[in-house]
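Annual report, structural modelling task.

Input specification for the nicotinamide-adenine-dinucleotide complex:
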Amino acid sequence: MAHILVTGGAGFIGSNYVRWLLRTHPEDRVTVLDKLTYAGRLENLADVVDNPRFHFVRGDIANPDDVEPLLAERPLVASFAAESHVDRSILDPTAFIRTAVFGTYTLMEAARKHGIGRFVLVSTDEVYGSVVEGSSKETDALDPRSPYSASKASADLLARSYFTTYGVPVMITRGSNTFGPYQYPEKILPLFITNAIDDQPLPVYGDGRNVRDWLYVLDHCAAIDLVLREGEPGEIYNVGGGNERPNIEVTRLILDSLGKPHSLIQYVADRPGHDRRYSLDSGKLRHLGWQPRYRFEDAFAETVRWYVEHPGWWRAIKSGDYTEYYRRNYAHR
Ligand code: NAD
Ligand code: DAU
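The model returned the following structure:
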């Protein structure tokens, strides 16, 4: 029986991981530490809050008073907590740097002090920067190009230094663009699906030819869990979905699956410093025993269906803070 501390467990991937964990490992206990920022929502965990194996703590990974008592219990740690949206990092990087750098430092210091068993830091393929051709390997140089990806690369390097210097058993996963239920409707998939449902324009940045490699959230969760339990301390593992698609293709797929017209596509000004393509070589993780279980087409259709069937979840968000944010920053484009 394991006790797993999940930081950022009220966000998109974290909440899917918690649900998956409680289902897949019936002996394990799970504690979530989450600050509940705009992206962290207890509604995402509504179906597990009454589970006796689940415990929620509201707190900040950058605050030692919040982190210390939890790491003193010496759980396994899966750390998802971060600011995660590139556009927000361009508008104001402050929270990104604070959470990624001071948050990771705080977690690492507590992990070192209490001698915890295993720690996975959830990082991203964006740390490699824009990849014109070929696929990134774990040994490639980092070239982050947005405040978001630079904050993640900083956390990634800092965590690894605690392995090299102090022997803290840290593993790092670098995952690709993840999709599924409970994703905040500021990211392209949930934003475009929910806009299309409401016959609103789909704002495609630039020429729409930027390529992302799509990974279903449950495949990402299984990869993180495998690395947590069986990864080699100090090692980095790429997690790529193997589904590279230009944004415009994904946009058309959304419209087609909802029976909406392509005239909803609206080309808008490009994101500053917009990375053209990400691509991962996931051979190392496959060698450890992981492979994606879900076909892209099936997982994509399932995801669209989830947003169609859960309008209450995303309407509450879009009618409040998000709508205001979007109006202020993007509506003029
Ligand atoms: P998200 O924005 O949906 O969730 C982030 C969660 O972290 C929220 O619950 C938020 O409240 C919490 N949080 C933020 N700052 C915190 C702090 N200081 N202390 C405690 N909790 C805090 O993000 P997501 O899309 O679920 O991403 C989770 C992790 O996976 C992030 O580290 C992200 O960089 C990484 N990642 C995401 C993707 C993707 O496509 N979404 C791909 C690869 C890696
Ligand atoms: O690659 C992994 C990363 O994927 C994660 O580390 C990040 O946390 C996650 O947010 C995601 O980053 P992206 O910047 O790739 O995701 P986003 O959904 O913001 O954008 C995906 C692509 O779609 C990107 O090329 C920009 C484009 N886009 C995005 C939005 C929000 C648009 O064309 N229009 C939009 O309105």
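The longest strand covers residues 29-34.
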